Amino acid sequence: MSNNVVETIQPLAAAITDAHQFELVDMEFVREGQSWFLRVYIDKPGGINIEECAMVSDELSEKLDTIEPDPIPQAYFLEVSSPGAERPLKKEADYENAIGKYVHIGLYQKVDGKKVFEGDLTAVTPDTLTVAYLDKTRHKTVTIDRQQISQARLAVKF
Question: What residues make up the domain containing 106?
Answer without folding.
Answer: 92-154
